[in-house]
Prior knowledge:
The protein is an all-alpha fold.
Amino acid sequence: MSAKTYKNKLAEPLVQKLKSLVKTALIRCFEAYDSYYRLNITNSNLHRENERLTKTNEKLAGENENLRAENKNYKLLKKAFGSKQMDSLLEQAKAFAVSQRV
């Protein structure tokens, strides 16, 4: 086999395959880096949203506890004074609050 034949039949096709392989590997590397960058941004956004929702949840849990205590007191008063009298007092309080706004 002459040098020219070796070059044409073996070396050049091998170099072309290697070039193609390196090109494909670089493209995949850049695509992977781009995907990583995008996922990192998405993860950061989700982390911030999770922190915000956690704070909101803690705030609402505290508010819920306060409302449960108020509801417990209301039920105790309702039991002591009766349902009709409590409803009447609530209506009077609502009417008073409306008159104060005007």
